[in-house]
Amino acid sequence: MKLWDKGIEINKMIEDFTVGNDRNIDLLLAEYDVMGSIAHSVMLHDIGVLSEKEKEKIMEQLFLILEDIRQGSFSIKDNVEDVHSQIEFILTEKLGNTGKKIHTGRSRNDQALTDIKMFLRDEVKKTVMMAEEYITLLLKLSEKYKDIFMPGYSHLQAAMPSSFGLWFGAYAESLTDDLYFMLAAYRLNNRNPLGSAAGYGSSVPVDRQKTTQLLGFEDMNLNALYAQMTRGKTEKITAFAISSVAATISRMASDICLFMCRNFDFIGFPDELTTGSSIMPHKQNPDVFELVRAKCNRIQSIPNEITIIVNNLTSGYFRDMQVLKEILFPAFSELDKCLNIIFLMLENIRVNKDILKNEIYDNIYSVEEVNKLVLKGIPFREAYKRISEDIRNGAFNPSKDIDHTHEGSIGNLCNDKIMERMNNIVNEFDFNSTDNVLKKLSEYSI
């Protein structure tokens, strides 16, 4: 069954190729498609297209379908093209001509776009909630280990004294900045395209403000053509947002792989959280973090994939967009798994508290000694040369007392301000407003 069926049998190879993997992927959109249809039905009744009785019959069937979806018993039949077709087929089978009225004033284009935006809106929410927990853990670890020192690196050379507090806190703030990308993606997904039809509006006087309110959207895409043009753009911007989170996670995973190396021996994990070698009994491999790094790096490639597919398309809809679901949708699950596993690992991290006792790190105190001379009135370049000569002559014997007090330094991590910033940005998403509206819609009284 196809929404565009004109009574002509389509070549089986053509059908298989054009449907692609939609039957499987569209199951992720099923609940959103029903919710969109519920809102659309209410609106059609309000503008006089559906009678009260017709609305009641359609709503009754839609809620039965919604229950099947939530119980996992809904499926898209092999002879049905996509989730939109399957739901309309059920309505038509149950209600006859009344079921056929559900598509009035909309196209499969804006129907799919509405589903996708609602799906992405929810997936962004899940990622933000997980990131919030992760940031909170990082700040907790930063406070716990703020007095445990480690070398900081530049060009992968031991450079200056750092601390685990500074290191954990750096990634907490990085993820907090990533939330700004997520907020931009959320807001773009939180605009209603329904009612734009195929991208050129409709002669049916649909009430777009009504469906916007019923579906918990913050606003609508105003221009009908632009609403359709957000297909592809929305996915790309969302992909950039999650790739920013993935970049932070990947970089931290790479640090951990290095720090677990026996040549560094900065951190470790319980045996049950590491893997071994088939022939080397002593090995404790950072497989988790290597896989996290690889998976997150692959996620970072997604914006480029989407860009290549949608680049230079003219205005309006193209079937090219269908492929975007296959690329973007699985990335959320992949990122969620990475966040979950690295959270588990960090909850069990072991930190070496005596790293800087090793004399190989003595020279990282050179800047400390230079600054001590500067604070006594010696010009910086003169102090720099003096300490440099001591190092070359083997006469450098630094004090290992560290006194950094400025904002963001070892002695003043500003973790409370990072936490405050995170809370402020999370509050800007205002998830509860959308959740409450959708809850009300799912309990809509017929």
What does it look like?
This protein has 446 residues and is mainly alpha-helical. It has three domains: 12-103, Fumarase/aspartase (N-terminal domain) (Fumarase C, Chain B, domain 1, Orthogonal Bundle); 108-205 and 228-357 and 414-442, Fumarase C, Chain A, domain 2; 358-412, no CATH class. The chain is 61% helix and 5% strand. The protein is built from 17 helices and six strands. The chain has a two-stranded antiparallel ribbon. A two-stranded parallel sheet has the order 3-4. Strands 5-6 form a two-stranded antiparallel ribbon. Strand 3 (191-192), helix 9 (208-214) and strand 4 (219-220) form a beta-alpha-beta unit.
* Biggest pleated-sheet summary: 2 strands, antiparallel
CATH class category of the largest domain: Mainly Alpha
Strand content: under 5%
Superfamily at the CATH H level of the largest domain?
Answer: Fumarase/aspartase (Central domain)
| Strand count | 6
Mean pLDDT: 93
